[in-house]
Amino acid sequence: MIPNRILRLVTVLALAAGARAQGDASQPKWSSATTNVQSELEASISELASLRNGIAFEKVPLNRALIELEEDLAKRRADVQQASRLLDTRTLDLSNLTAEIKARREESAYLSSLFGEYTRNLETRLQIAEMQRYGADIERSKLAAESRSMNELESLREQARLLTVSLERLEDALGGTRFEGHAVDPNGLLRNGTFVLVGPCALFRTNDGQLVGTAEQRLGSLEPALVPFAAPEDAAHAAELVVAGVGKLPLDPTLGNAHKVEATQESLVEHIQRGGPVMIPIFVVAGIALVIALYKWVRIAFVRKPSQSQLSELLDAIALSDRDRAVEVASGMRGPAGKMLYIATEHLGESRELIEEVMYEKVLGTRLKLNALLPFVAITASAAPLLGLLGTVTGIMNTFTLITVFGTGDVKTLSSGISEALITTEYGLYVAIPSLLLHAFLSRQVKAVIDHMESVAVSFLNQLGKVRHVAAPREAAPATPVAAASPVPVRV
């Protein structure tokens, strides 16, 4: 309402200003307009005053309502802040709970893995006879760890139950325990009977009482094997212990390892037979080489050498130019060196070169005789490892053939080829090393004999050279230069 009147008032004033500008011609109209405007102005002022009074009257409740609204807004803001803080707290609590749940699940998985590892360790530590007693509990623990029908709590409870069973087993093991079961007898038959466990020692007695022995594990078998006692008194004590629960305990300190070691023992003939057909040529060449080595050693050992006194007597005879005496002394010498000196003394009237060639011929003959057959020993030292390598190759080929047929699951099946591969190499080295040492020893002995002959020959030739050097100036013709250049042969 107020804006319309004010607008009319402004319009009237504008029209009045325009009319005043037109002159005094319209003076009466202006007066009437002014009167109207004045009345309207007074009415507007009066209305404005009433409006102001109304506004002043309504302002207090509106302010009170505004204050109430502001207070309500502040309260609502406080509620929002409290709800926000509560939401943050709840979010933090939810995060903590989520982290705690994750940690508990990880702990549960860790405990499950620990129980699984404990189950596996317990299974490996159990005596083979105890598997009949605790095998079902161990199997349930394994299945609980992998079961999808159980929740985590049920799975852990089932696995933890095995821990209780193992603790009961420890209590039973302190004083020994008895339980029914079955074992495989030496004939391969499954026999029912009673087990007695005292610590790591397990005894078994058949229900008919015919067999009593230790219960041991055999490779590749899941059933305990009965190993009867060899001594009757041990069997009697074990039977009394099984039946009455009180008695003497026949204890094996090796816990069955002695039986296993005894089962792996084999005689020399069996060991050689496992080497295969290549062992035949190895032993043939070894036997021939051994016979040759013994023959050559005996022959070289009995080679006689001239004594030092005989050599001195021979050299003295040569120094005195006594040919007959030198031949007589040389004929009394034995051995190749004596024969060499005897031949040399028979050619004393010949030239030095001829005597040296004759002696060297005898040395060569002796060397050939002494070295005869020795190369076979050296060949044996070289060939034996090659024969062993041949056996290794054939053994490996047999092993791969068995792998092709039977696979790699059973080690016993592959043992024949592996044994052949290793035993032939072993005996090849057994033959090669002694053959090499014998050849070196015999060659050294032969060289010692030849060196002695050469030493004796050098001493003989040196003594002969000294005698001829002294005799040559006495028989030379001093007046004739040609005779001095060509000395007359001298026979000593």
Outline: elongated
How many strands, which pairing sense, and closed or not: the largest β-sheet? 5 strands, antiparallel
- Uncertain ranges: 475-492
| Number of structurally distinct domains | 3
Trace the largest sheet across and list its strands: 1-2-3-4-5
Alpha plus pi helix count: 15
Work out the helicity level.
Answer: over 70%
Q: Would you count the extended β strands for me?
A: 5
Head-to-tail CA distance between termini: 183 Å
**Helix/strand class:** alpha+beta
Strand content: 5-15%
Order of helices and strands: HHHHEEEEEHHHHHHHHHHH
Report the radius of gyration as a whole number of Å: 64 Å
Mean pLDDT: 80
Give a description of the structure:
This protein is α+β, with helices and mostly antiparallel strands and 492 residues long. It has helices at 2-21, 27-125, 131-146, 152-175, 232-244, 257-264, 268-273, 279-301, 308-319, 323-331, 335-346, 352-371, 374-406, 411-475, 481-485; strands at 177-184, 190-198, 201-206, 212-217, 224-228. A hairpin with a 5-residue loop joins strand 1 and strand 2. Helix 11 (335-346) packs antiparallel against helix 12, helix 12 (352-371) runs antiparallel to helix 14 and helix 13 packs antiparallel against helix 14. The radius of gyration is 64 Å and the shape is elongated. The model is unreliable at 475-492 (pLDDT under 50).
Descriptive labels:
492 residues, alpha+beta, 15 helices, 74% helix, 7% strand, elongated, disordered C terminus
